[in-house]
Design goal:
The chain is mostly beta strands. It has 4 domains: 241 residues, Pectate Lyase C-like; 83 residues, no CATH class; 78 residues, no CATH class; 76 residues. The protein is 6% helix and 42% strand. It has a 16-stranded mixed sheet that branches. A 10-stranded parallel sheet has the order 1-4-6-8-10-12-15-18-21-24. The longest helix is centred in the middle third of the chain and has 17 residues. The radius of gyration is 25 Å and the shape is globular. 49% of the residues are buried. Keywords: Plasmid. This is Right handed beta helix domain-containing protein.
């Protein structure tokens, strides 16, 4: 097979540099800005992005901006107006995030992928996405022109694409063959692709699945205005090197490029098992590649758009097809299974994030009650639930009794339709953290999602809401807290740390590099949010020093940092010197050297 990587797997040129707006900002929309500034319209004005409200969704006009999605965030009900002719990038940098009900309207004339994914370990859900108006290669310098979705080699998240429509992109529909690098995976569930250059579904890992999907090409010019580059284009499915990709209940057809499916690339073998569905055309197997086709696979594929896939940008942005699909699924579920009798509804507030935690003494499961979202970031373990809401709702069905409930933020909690007081359920700080000394002086720093307090009295402990700094030698320091433990750092010596009686390994929690210097950007007294960026010639990590907050929307890439400080403070530990510091706004900046020795 001829070498045809389309976009090289070294990730070059894919969303590496955020374009700048006319006012010199980086054009970013941060969810933290959205919540702190009370509305996407205000945030957009701050960062130079045009956003206007619609009845069921918001309209964002493409002007070369990058919208970044951090860990645990939800980005939903947006119509991205590409008729401006400008580029746009949705950059997913954090796992346990959800991108839902997004419609891209108009022929895309940018010079990069529309969606780029470089997330850490966890899950990312893309649901109800429309990219069916295509793209043009005209004027593009990028290899083969613009594409729809690209997954970076460094990405470690497990991706799910559900009810997505991608058509007419010259440089791949879903470029996800970097799953071969591990440990990530991709699951295509009820997706449609047509006339995409190079590939529609491109994957590699043994954990990758293509299910209830359709892809075919019937146009000699793949990609609207693509210009007729057809030599290596047109594969509905391309399985690269890696594990055995599973394909079920899916249908593909060739076009002028005479293959419905290709396995193997650049001298490496690809493997796939085609369990059910249908295809028209041939399957090309590169040297060493295997594609096992079951008897259930038909030679007469059904190439209609799968039920629930949005067929316009407006339908996707408003969630019309999503609501219909969810309603059908719920009706089928109700017909076949008895629903759990009680409902917990956590109603968020756009003013700020609300973290919640509750436990029941029976079964519990996520639900779409009263239009609530089902987020992959909500954690359910043995009757205990952790989650985050802002301008959306989370809901859960359960049986038995609600035993514990902790809420940190402005959101409300309703049980079976009645608002409840969290203090009526269990303890305010339900968890116990113990740090036991080993006979040598030991200093430590521990952070949690909620609040933490000392169980007892001593004069060596400092607590700032969610972080504790203390020391221990022979005895045991005991704390009570809410939420989950996020960071444990043993500064010197050694100690045994346990949570609710179970010993934990500090190496499993947070970033433990102990850095000497501190940088604090404090926007609490400024009239408006301040954007900042800087680089260090040594390591840099986020910090709660000087009562600063840690927010995942502040971005650290190698030794370069970008963030926003509104009516809060951001802080960083670092080593070496600060280089290229830029501040847009009136926040105060304080550099403190060798803080830990003071």
């Amino acid at each position: 097979m001829a070498r045809d990587s389309s976009v090289a797997d070294d990730d070059r040129c894919v969303g590496e540099d955020a374009p700048t707006t006319d006012d010199g900002s980086d054009g970013l929309l941060h969810r933290r800005s959205y919540m702190k500034l009370a509305g996407a319209t205000t945030a957009a004005a701050t960062f130079g992005t045009s956003v206007s409200a619609a009845e069921d969704y918001e309209v964002i006009r493409a002007n070369g901006q990058t919208v970044r999605i951090g860990r645990g965030e939800t980005f939903e009900n947006k119509l991205i107006d590409l008729t401006t002719g400008n580029s746009f990038l949705l950059l997913v940098e954090g796992a346990n995030s959800v991108i839902r009900n997004i419609g891209f309207e108009g022929l895309y004339r940018g010079d990069q992928f529309l969606i780029s994914i470089q997330a850490d370990r966890g899950d990312v859900l893309f649901e109800n996405i429309y990219m069916g108006d295509g793209a043009t290669k005209e004027g593009a310098d990028f290899v083969h022109g613009p594409g729809a979705v690209f997954m970076h080699k460094e990405s470690q998240a497990n991706l799910t694409f559900r009810r997505c429509n991608v058509q007419g992109f010259p440089n791949n529909g879903f470029y996800c063959s970097n799953t071969a690098s591990g440990p990530s995976s991709v699951h295509f569930d009820t997706c449609f692709g047509k006339n995409n250059g190079v590939t529609t579904f491109r994957c590699a890992s043994g954990d990758d699945v293509i299910e209830n999907c359709v892809a075919y090409n019937d146009d000699t010019d793949y990609g609207r205005g693509y210009g007729g580059y057809t030599e290596t284009n047109g594969r509905p499915v391309w399985v690269w090197s890696g594990g055995d990709v599973t394909i079920r209940d899916s249908h593909f057809a060739d076009g002028p490029y005479p293959y419905a499916m290709v396995a193997g690339a650049n001298g490496s073998a690809g493997r796939a098992t085609f369990e059910s569905g249908g295809y028209r055309g041939t399957i090309q197997r590169a040297s060493g590649s295997t594609v096992t086709v079951a008897d259930a696979v038909s030679s007469d594929p059904d190439l209609s758009v799968p039920d629930g896939v949005p067929t316009s940008a407006e339908a996707a942005a408003s969630g019309d097809s999503s609501a219909a699909s969810i309603g059908k699924a719920n009706a089928e579920s109700a017909a076949g299974d008895e629903q759990l009798p009680h409902v917990v509804l956590v109603d968020g507030d756009a003013a700020d994030v609300t973290r919640y935690e509750f436990s029941v003494d029976g079964a519990v499961e996520a639900a779409n009650h009263e239009g609530a979202s089902i987020d992959v970031g909500d954690e359910i373990t043995d009757g205990q639930v952790h989650g985050i809401v802002a301008d959306w709702k989370d809901a859960f069905r359960f049986d038995g009794d609600l035993a514990e409930l902790t809420v940190d933020g402005p959101g409300r909690v309703l049980v079976d339709g009645e608002e409840v007081d969290p203090t009526d359920y269990g303890e305010e700080h339900p968890h116990v953290l113990e740090v036991a000394g080993r006979g040598v002086p030991t200093s430590f720093e521990i952070s949690v999602e909620g609040e933490i307090e000392l169980d007892g009295e001593d004069d060596v402990t400092t607590i700032t809401e969610s972080t504790v700094q203390s020391s221990v030698t022979d005895g045991t320091r005991t704390f009570r807290f809410s939420g989950a433990v996020t960071d444990v750092t043993i500064i010197n010596g050694g100690a045994d740390v346990s949570v609710d009686g179970e010993e934990i390994d500090p190496a499993d929690y947070g970033d433990h590099e102990l850095l000497p210097h501190a940088l604090v950007i404090d926007g609490t007294d400024a009239d408006e949010p301040s954007a900042y960026s800087f680089e260090t010639d040594g390591a840099v990590v986020k910090s709660t020093h000087s009562e600063a907050t840690i927010d995942e929307d502040d971005v650290i890439e190698d030794r370069a940092v970008r963030g926003v400080a509104g009516n809060w403070a951001d802080a960083y530990w670092f080593d070496g010197d600060i280089e290229d510091f830029t501040l847009r706004g009136h926040a105060t900046v304080d550099v403190q050297y060798n803080v830990r020795k003071q």
